[in-house]
Inverse folding.
């Protein structure tokens, strides 16, 4: 029979450095609790994974931690449980900035990760993917720059609705973004032809939240807690959503699909978020293993 769909669930938290609150307000009310909670849960369960993007927030939290917590973070990074995506000080704006500003702020974040956690740069295990899930613009300069930085792949979201709908209808939500004019040869095996090439994943209409919101976050969306009494119903809904969503991405060369799980300032209480997720994932493995194979990534 047909191979089951491979589903890679990517837990994450999107933390704006400034939006409806200031950087300091976000850090004190949300971010420091998110990072502390996530590191605690990852340390308790080696099967869990988490992706972080904004190094500006991470660096402030990390510098305030005792040696034992820093050692725990280093262990999680070495195990592949905690990874960074993008790894800039923030996620670069793509609409009105200058390319030098993008390079500067990405360099600042990457230098901090190298200095503090020995993450040697894009294309390495802990920093493989560029991650622009909320900035508006989707500039071609972004693909050129990130390819030149040697990222293996790129995940983004904010494009026009018409473009996204047509790509979803045609199963073209994943593609190789080719941009001419790169003198570096870029990443992703471009071979020094002068064209930047970057394998790209465009998130669907559910943005960066995922097909079911497992838990609670600041996005204004709520989800029922997953319990033994409702896990079968919610898992059936999840598997149905995954199979529908996969048609936008799966083709002759790929039978895998990325599912982001997170939202704005999600995982303030990581025990609840991961607990809900794990009940769903475990039930899917037990009941729907012929249809989908779900793993954390």
């Amino acid at each position: 029979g047909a191979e089951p769909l491979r589903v890679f669930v990517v837990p994450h938290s999107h933390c704006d450095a400034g939006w409806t609150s200031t950087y300091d307000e976000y850090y004190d009310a949300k971010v420091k609790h998110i990072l502390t909670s996530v590191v605690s849960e990852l340390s308790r369960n080696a099967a869990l994974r988490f992706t972080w993007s904004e190094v500006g927030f991470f660096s402030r939290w990390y510098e305030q931690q005792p040696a034992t917590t820093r050692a725990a973070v280093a262990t999680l990074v070495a195990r592949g449980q905690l990874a960074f995506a993008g790894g800039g000080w923030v996620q670069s704006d793509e609409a009105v900035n200058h390319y030098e500003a993008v390079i500067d702020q990405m360099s600042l974040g990457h230098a901090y990760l190298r200095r503090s956690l020995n993450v040697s740069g894009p294309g390495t295990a802990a920093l493989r993917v560029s991650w622009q899930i909320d900035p508006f613009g989707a500039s071609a300069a972004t693909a050129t720059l990130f390819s030149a930085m040697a990222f293996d792949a790129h995940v983004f979201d904010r494009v026009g609705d018409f473009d996204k709908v047509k790509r979803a209808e045609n199963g073209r939500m994943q593609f190789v973004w080719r941009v001419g004019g790169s003198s570096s040869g870029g990443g992703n095996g471009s071979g020094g032809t002068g064209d930047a090439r970057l394998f790209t994943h465009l998130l669907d209409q559910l943005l960066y939240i995922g097909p079911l919101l497992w838990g609670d976050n600041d996005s204004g969306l709520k989800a029922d807690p997953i319990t033994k009494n409702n896990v079968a119903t919610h898992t059936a809904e999840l598997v149905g959503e995954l199979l529908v969503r996969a048609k936008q991405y799966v083709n002759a060369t790929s039978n895998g699909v990325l599912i982001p799980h997170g939202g704005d300032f999600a995982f303030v209480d990581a025990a609840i978020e991961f607990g809900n997720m794990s009940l769903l994932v475990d039930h899917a493995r037990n009941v729907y293993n012929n249809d989908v194979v779900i793993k954390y990534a």
Q: What stands out?
A: The first strand starts at residue 5 and ends at 11. The CA atoms of residues 88 and 104 lie 9 Å apart.
